[in-house]
Amino acid sequence: MKFTGMILAGVLSLFSTVAVSETFTFTAIPDEDESQLRTRFDKVAVYLSEQLGVEVKYVPVKSYSAAVTAFRNNQVQLAWFGGLSGVQARRLVPGSEAIAQGFEDQFFKSYIIAHHSTKLAATDSFPILNDYTFTFGSKDSTSGRLMPQYFIESNVGQSVDKIFKRIGFSGDHSRTISQVEAGVYQVGAVNYKVWDTAVEKGEVDTSKVSVIWQSPTYPDYQWTVHSGVDTVYGAGFKDKLTKTLIGMKDKDLLDSFPRESFVPANNSDYEPIERVAKAIGMLD
């Protein structure tokens, strides 16, 4: 009986070893320059690996939709999503959960920026934007498309295709800034964090482009985890992952997001995003 017990213990130990040897993978929406994302998330992978005791790998993707697809197909088990992409992913993967968000993501906002040639000045009231060329970020961006479109249409009372002379989609916030600064588009919508950080680093010529309006706040980015991670990586893994993300205190890591800290999140926090997406026809 003792020998049988030893065999059983050995088998259980083997299965435990196999479980934790599984590489834990994560991705992020490509909302900035790819090299900046790689630098940030490779550091995050090292941090998570050290804290969780498993190999962790960051998997870059080329588009917001590719991030959602990778999550749906379980090619990644965790993702740093925007508000809309997180809603999309969780709708496709029942049981997946938003577990952490940046402190600032509880009250995120968008900026509308304009090229100096427009003569548009900063205003608390909504600016007159008729007949300008306008660029959003990615088509699936919360801060670069969804919420700006909602605020524009709500304030003007018309659809954006009737307001603007020409509409573009830059692909990410960094390119939105570059395109408006260069005059490729006269006006654009951008994530306030990306703008503020770029200005702070001296990467924006504010004599050529400036903020003319800032939106009301809304919930945005979050870490969303796949259903079933406890089965693959061991009981309690999701809770340990959540505590690890919320416990991220390294200033260099936090500054790279940039976020003051991470705080708990849950799916219901993003119901306002889902309602807006349905209202403007971006979700069924």
From TrEMBL:
Query: Organism's domain of life?
Result: Bacteria
Q: Which GO terms describe its biological process?
A: transmembrane transport
Q: Which GO terms describe its cellular component?
A: ATP-binding cassette (ABC) transporter complex
Q: Does the keyword Mitochondrion apply?
A: no
Pfam families listed in its UniProt record: Phosphonate-bd (PF12974)
Q: Which Gene3D superfamilies match?
A: Periplasmic binding protein-like II (3.40.190.10)
Keyword Repressor carried by entry = no
Q: Signal sequence: where?
A: 1-21
Keywords per UniProt: Signal
InterPro entries attached to this UniProt entry: ABC_peri_PhnD-like, PhnD
Query: Which NCBIfam families did the record assign?
Result: 3A0109s03R, ABC_peri_selen
**Family listed:** Belongs to the phosphate/phosphite/phosphonate binding protein family.
Name of the protein in its database record = Selenate ABC transporter substrate-binding protein
Q: Which organism does this sequence originate in? A: Shewanella algicola
